[in-house]
Design goal:
This protein is α/β, with parallel strands linked by helices. 47% of the residues lie in helices and 20% in strands. The chain has a 6-stranded mixed sheet, with helices on both faces.
């Protein structure tokens, strides 16, 4: 068991001791356990909680009644009373029965990691879509656990783990909550329908879509702001932004693309949350290019990258064209950069606040999006096709050749096929007109 104390001089309403169980039979490194608990501290502070102390227990298997052992529960009770804490936050997900048993034994509010993350998302959600998704995730999580929230129901009214659905919704019966979930899913389906329409409209215009993904606090929003002058909230905290933001960005060639910032990932991201935010995260699945932003200064960089890879695989986006962006390179000593940042695949190392690095990134994005040079011949009177050539590709040169325009265009293979299909359709229509004229 290990214990870490924190400053207790604060008027913050929620005063908590954080608890973590480390299984001695699971293959989880000591460093990972410490990192997970440190991350829980950051999550709690992000939610506005005053962290008084952290406790950790090494145990072969979780206790079915309290998660931690009976002796550890008694020790936790003594520390809660001694420090005047009113909340216990657990790093693992708790069952309804465990919540009820811990409430009875400790007489404080019991919150687990999942509830804490859901609460932070509830604080951050600003758009109608985000608010619907958070409430849906919270209710989906709470529904099977209502029997475990005995005393917690009397403690509601703004505390952590309760924002979003709120007091009145949690006190209603399961049938009412199921009805609310059904309504939320219907509302979310409508939002998703509109999002799909916008996405299809963007595709038809031939505009490239690039998605920023990465672990929370890796610097995605900072990159979006710096690359597009977007008016987005940037702060050094977990989940500083939640709702997806799309802005146009100009490549060095002058071609415009759409850059979208997605919600940050985190280890043990609640499954209900992944399900609720699937429509948002699918921006990555629909993108022509994924920019995987990594906090290169983090000691747990490899683990964070693994988490992002797992979520992308779950979304079906693991095979997408990708460029790994090692951000915050300025925080790593020069002597350590080569050893620390070796990786497979395409990557670039940058400082988001360096104009030179941002220009290198723009060129790297352009190189990934735009393929080899191809030659197209377009009837000179087909202005709509000529316009599409300029929108989809990077026109290197053009010249008039009789009644046709000849273009040399840098374009990726997907858009090359799209242009080829359109030109073939025009040729077929032209030949049909000639045959009708001859007959």
């Amino acid at each position: 068991m290990s214990m870490t104390a924190y400053d207790t001089n604060s008027s913050v309403k929620d005063r908590a001791i954080l608890v973590s169980l480390v299984s001695t039979v699971q293959k989880r490194s000591e460093a990972m356990a410490e990192y997970s608990l440190a991350e829980l501290v950051s999550l709690a502070e992000t939610a506005g909680v005053q962290v008084l102390e952290t406790m950790r227990q090494n145990k072969d298997t979780p206790d079915a009644r309290w998660l931690i052992g009976k002796g550890k529960v008694e020790e936790l009770k003594a520390r809660l009373d001694e420090l005047g804490a009113n909340t216990a936050i657990f790093d693992q997900e708790l069952s309804g029965a465990q919540v009820r048993n811990l409430e009875e034994a400790l007489d404080v509010k019991i919150i687990d990691r999942t509830q804490l993350i859901l609460d932070i998302f509830a604080q951050r959600a600003k758009t109608r879509e985000g608010i619907i998704q958070v409430e849906l995730a919270q209710l989906s999580y709470l529904l099977p656990r209502l029997s475990g929230h005995g005393k917690n129901l009397s403690r509601l009214g703004g505390g952590i783990g309760t924002r979003g659905p709120g007091e009145t919704k949690l006190e209603t019966d399961r049938r009412h909550i199921r009805g609310r979930i059904t309504d939320l899913k219907a509302a979310l389906s409508e939002v998703v329908r509109h999002r799909v329409l916008h996405r299809e409209r963007r595709k038809k215009t031939g505009v490239f879509q690039v998605a920023l993904v990465g672990y929370t606090n890796a610097g995605k929003s900072t990159l979006l702001k710096r690359l597009t002058d977007a008016d987005v909230y940037v702060e050094n905290q977990l989940f500083a932004t939640l709702d997806p933001t799309s802005r146009t960005m100009e490549l060095p060639s002058g071609k415009e693309i759409v850059l979208t910032d997605t919600v940050g990932f985190i280890q043990n991201l609640p499954h209900d949350l992944i399900a609720a935010f699937r429509a948002t995260l699918e921006e990555a699945n629909e993108a022509d290019l994924i920019l995987h932003v990594v906090d290169s200064s983090s000691d747990m960089r490899s683990e964070q990258m693994r988490v992002v890879d797992e979520v992308l695989e779950e979304l079906g986006a693991s095979g997408k064209e990708r460029l790994t962006v090692f951000n915050k390179i300025d925080l790593i000593p020069d002597s350590e950069r080569v050893d620390l940042l070796t990786t497979g695949g395409d990557f670039i190392r940058i400082n988001a606040y360096s104009d030179t690095d941002l220009e290198r990134l723009r060129n790297a994005i352009q190189e990934k999006l735009m393929g080899d040079s191809k030659t197209f011949r377009v009837p000179a009177d087909k202005g709509d096709v000529i316009s599409l050539v300029y929108r989809i590709g990077d026109v290197v040169s053009n010249e008039v050749d009789g009644d046709e325009m000849r273009f040399e265009v840098r374009v990726n293979k997907d858009d090359y096929a799209k242009l080829g299909y359109l030109l073939a359709a025009y040729d077929e229509a032209k030949q049909g007109d000639q045959h009708r004229g001859e007959s």
